[in-house]
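Entry:
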Amino acid sequence: MERMIALKHESNPVGNPVKVLHLEDSDADHLLVKRAIAKNAIVATITRVEDWDSLNMALRAQEFDIVLMDYRLQGFTALEAWDAISTLPVPPPCVILSGAIGEAAAVAAIQTGVTDYLHKDKLDEIGRVMLRAMKVHQLAIDRQRAAKALEASEQRITELARHLQTSLEEERASIAREIHDDIGGSLAAIRLDVAWIKRHSQDHGILARLDSVQEVVGKALASTQRIMRNTRPEILDQGLSASVQWLIDAHSKRVGRQVTAHCNLENDRGLADAYRLTAYRTVQESLTNISKYAPDADVSVDLSDSGDVLTVEVTDNGPGFNVGQTRSSSGFGLKGLSERAKNIGGWLDVSSVPGKGTSITLTVPLPARTTNSQVSETGEP
């Protein structure tokens, strides 16, 4: 039976009227609850049920904003009723109204998920208890929605980062090809033409000028080779160990310090391009940061693919930094490396303590004997 109680408006988190489901097999107690709600100025529609079948019918018929229930009813208890209510997609808050249970039983009921308990001798507080229960329930719903929205937002950001990273590598490869085909080819042609002119000229002034041009062209060619290696290093085609060794040699030459390297790659040439490229960029970014912030540090680089897990670790004994407070460009670089790792199913660990050095570790589970055709260069399986 459903009745409308039209009362003075009072603010509540679900709007008016409040849809109340009342589990009560006593006419007198049901009337007392209705009067108590009326005295608390809550606009409500109250649906009363007395037995198990009526409860299930009511739950199927509509959604309720709150459930008020006696502890013992015909053939079942409030806890059994809660078991049924809790299976709903969004269970409403439930408040036990009873004078038949003690504090321990009330606490046990709340621990199962029941929202609150009110003794029937204190029905004058029912308005406060109902509003509090609905507010707590609404806050929980809002938190769940916010968490889902945040999760969806993070997923979109991850997808965007993956797309940007893929596009970046594709653009780098395209730029490297253009530099090689256009600029590199043109400079090589210029060098050949200069050499031809030198062979066919006897003028010492012209020959001196041609020597200068050859030097400039040689530097330009060296620059194009360096730029191509930084954008899409061809040395990756020689394997991960060779490309990492090239990075190590370049770092040692740049800072004047040797790097300790340990390579334990059983399937170096068999690593997919995506894994090789991610590992290469991890070492490259790590050594670049060391060159900037810890050029005098001792550095070690370890590579391993044992146990079908690719591990790349770059460690230094430099000044270190506070990982949680990184705001520099290196911090963004490390975030980029983390996204790269996620793109291929791995993860990046950054461990650093001010004054005690830094360790950057890339870990990627490997499919058994993955071939280059299975995973593309851009990291897409």
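The chain has two domains: 2-145, 238-381.
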